[in-house]
Amino acid sequence: MTTPTTGRPSALVTGASSGIGYELAVQFAEHGFDLIVAAEDAGITAAADKLRRDGGVQIHPVRVDLSTEQGVEELVSAVAATGRPLDALALNAGRGAGGAFVGGTDLRDELEVVDLNVRSTVHLAKRLLPGMVERGAGRVLFTSSIASTMPGPFQAVYNASKSFVQSFAEALRNELKDSGVTVTALMPGPTDTAFFDRAEMRDTRVGSGKKDDPAEVAAQGFAAMMRGDQTVTAGSLINKVQTAAGKIIPDKLKSEQHRLMAKPGSGD
Questions:
Q1: Other Cβ atoms within 10 Å of 70 Cβ, number
Q2: Global pTM value
Q3: For residue range 213-237, what is the model confidence (pLDDT) as tens digits?
Q4: Over 90: is that where the pLDDT of 6 sits?
Q5: Could you give the angle at which helices 19-30 and 43-55 cross, rounded to 10 degrees?
Q6: DSSP codes joined into one string, 113-170
Q7: How many CA atoms lie within 13 Å of 163's alpha carbon, on the beta-carbon side?
Q8: Cα–Cα distance between 77 and 127 in angstroms, integer?
Q9: Burial of 150 (0-12, 13-18, 19+ CB in 10 A)
Q10: Angle between helix 156-175 and 120-135 (nearest 10)
Q11: 196 contact partners, CB below 8 Å, separation of at least 6
Q12: Bridge partner list, 10
């Protein structure tokens, strides 16, 4: 799908069919970026159609399962097929799996969390960052989470995966500090997306509680990326307080607090 140069910058957003990913795509479109948007579900086509109507930019939807190596390579090929360099990269795709690790979750689900949140993030970064570094320009946004700052009882693999993403993003930022490529970690709190339904966490205190607007989270993340900030704790003030407090509160206490929020049935 070779695309003629439009004079506009180009960006890739993963997990873009809904939630924070879609709203990030909206931000890019509103700021004049042509886009490649990717997700595993059929909703990516409808999302692309809406982005075209609202943004007046070129949108290439790619339906692909990024929890597989083949899916990641298909997306890399789709990017190459445009014939255009990426000016920005938003690695947002991710999922969770709620419940007790022993007896409460399925191994297949937990491994898919690792494959999507961790493995695909590394794979895509390894394949797409070299082009940015070679050109000496680019902006990268990793969607981490405030969950990265704490152990996550009843969400153990998800929190661990986001701790990886946070550490990975900050390490790359340091490695690339003289390259012209900036790396920003977006750290949202509970956000009003399909995340809690897919993770089967609607009956938890965190799943049934108040959530942030994904459009606000995405706007804050986009602005931080464009400024070249290291991290941004997006959403409500309580997220910022929680992140700051997490630097001094012992892990044992944070684990107990997370348990109260994520234990199945805690929202009843």
A1: 10
A2: 0.94
A3: 999 999 999 999 999 999 999 988 8
A4: no
A5: 30
A6: HIIIIIIHHHHHHHHHHHHHHHHT-EEEEEE--GGGGS--TTSHHHHHHHHHHHHHHH
A7: 11
A8: 10
A9: buried
A10: 10
A11: 96, 98, 190, 202, 204, 206, 207
A12: 34
- By residue count, the chain amounts to 268
* Paired tokens of 61: 């939807």
SS (H, E, C) 211-260: CECHHHHHHHHHHHHHHCCCEEECCCHHHHHHHHHHCCCCHHHHHHHHHH
Please tell me what DSSP assigns to residue 184.
Answer: E
The first and second tokens of residue 170, run together, are 């900050």
User: Nearest to residue 214, comparing CAs of 238, 193, 232, 229?
Assistant: 193
- Name the token pair of 103: 């007896």
86-98 tens-digit pLDDT = 999 999 999 999 9
Residue with tokens 């701790």: 163
Residue of 201, 200, 19 lying closest to 94 (CA atoms): 19
What lies within 8 Å, CB to CB, of 261 at 6+ separation is: 204, 205, 206, 209
Token pair listed for 62: 């790619």
Type of residue at 162: K
**CA-closest candidate to residue 159, choices 218, 117, 109:** 117
